[in-house]
Structures are given as structure tokens and as C-alpha cells.
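WARN no homologs supplied; continuing
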Amino acid sequence: MAEDGRNRPRRDGNRAQPAGKADGRGGPPRKPQRQDRQPSGGDRRGGQARGGAQAPGSGGERSERTHNPRDLRSSNRQDRERSPEIDPEVTGKELDKVTRAQLRNLEERNADWVSRHLVMAGRLIDEDPELAFEHALAASRRGGRMALVREAVGLTAYAAGRYGEALREFRTFRRITGSHEHLPVMVDCERGLGRPEKALEAARADEARELDTAGKVELAIVVSGARADLNQVEAAVTALEIPQLDRKRAYSFSPRLFRAYADALENAGREQQAASWRRTANIAEEALGTGDFADPDIVDLSGDEEDAAGPDTARES
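OK structure emitted
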């Protein structure tokens, strides 16, 4: 059985992240790498969300947070949580120029509030996704009509394992912008909610044809995971046999795709072929280097593993 972490798409080769998070200083959350999760069959990850945060409905107590004393909204009743504290050095200028320009549509005080909470959400999404989600919610209280804010709420909710809330926010983002870029994550949210059949139905939407190449790869990985959830192990393998599964070329998404294919092969009992694809994934990763690859370069890998079988060969018994 493949280890936990297989059939989840990723935009950056590691983890899906909210958009705009350029480095450790902060920024709105980058598009999240689809969270790694084992196929169903009673093996789904339970009470603990990524980063150690308790997943909703897990029964765990949320740790006490220090809340922002400047959050003086009239809606702050005693029974409502207040916005989390912002690190004192955060100014909001850490955001990229495009995001800052969009936030100028807000009144100055609100723009400052929203921008600083978005920076905090971007900082925390990897280490404390639940707190990142709280920051994104705080931003939405003053910028909830902006697509980039709803996107941040969706991405942090997804990272925190709050799949229902994430799905709702991504639908709102789609309604505001008309963009289907988050379709793979939305499909994966259906998986997270224990609805693999609905995930497969959503993946067949006409909008899937509008995805860019990286998005199509992500969607294929999610579909493979949904097939594995249904114990359709051969279909999980077939779902990943797409044109981008080319072991002679490496794009930013290739290591992730190669490993997903290796895991699907292993789950189908093809250990030798799985091992070969894992070696190819390592070669691709070494060739590409580490870090984010916003504009994926193409690297010729031919000759690095000349005896490796292609997808068609891998399907042979």
C-alpha cells in the first residue's frame, strides 16, 4: 500500500498554496497543494488537520488565541470570536503589487486591515492552517466582496481540512470572477467530504477543458485519488496516463505526477514499475531543483533512464 500523500494535486511540486505567497515574509495564501490523504476504506485521516490543527468535527478543543484588541466591529458580541492578533512588524506592503492595487478599491482603513490579515494568512498557512483561516476570515469581514479575499478564505479553509467551507468559498470566487482555476481543489474537497462519486462527476464538467496544463495535471491526480477511494485501482492508474506523463521531459508538476503514478501502480500491485517511476521522479526533481516554478521550464531527461518503460509499457502485466 502506498504511503499517505499520494493522489493529491499540487501546484508547486510540494504542497498547494494560496495565491500570492511569494516567500516566508507573507502574502495572501498561495494556491494550496491538494492535501495528501489516503484513499477510503476506513483509512481517511481523522481528527487532526494538517499542521496539527484540529479538523472540524473532530471533538478537539481549539487552543486559546490572542485576539486583536483593535477589532472593534459592532458585531463583536461576547459569543463571537474576535480577529486574531497581527504580528507588529506586518504592514501589508508585503503583498505583491497586483494584490495591493486591487485592495485600493477599499476604503483606506479597511484596505490596511485586509492586507495585513492576508499577509498573516500567507505566513501561517503551512505551519498553522487553522489560524491562517481565522486571519482570512478577519480579512473577509471588511473585504468579503473581493474575489482575492474569498479565494484566501477558501485556500486556508482547504489547508485546515474545512472542506465544506472551502468548497463554498471557491464557488463564490468562481461566481465573482468566472474563473474555473480552482476546479481541481473543488473536486478534491468533494473527496475530503467523503463523496468520491460526486468528485468524479464534478471532474467531468465542461470547465475542465479550460484548465491550463498544470491544472489538468492536478485534476488527473485528484481523479486518480477518487478512483482509489472507490477501490478502482486500475482506473486510478489509467486516470494518470495523460500526455504530461512523459518520463523524458520534466515540468514543475512532473515529480508530483510521477510519484502519483508510482503510488497508483503500487496500489495495483505493480511494485517493480512503481519503483521505476519513483526513480524517474527523483531524477526530475534533481533536474528541476527546489523552490517554486511559476513558469515551468522544460528539461530533457532522455538518457537518464533509458531502460525505463513508458506509460504504455507500464500498463502491461
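The CA atoms of residues 76 and 82 lie 7 Å apart.
OK
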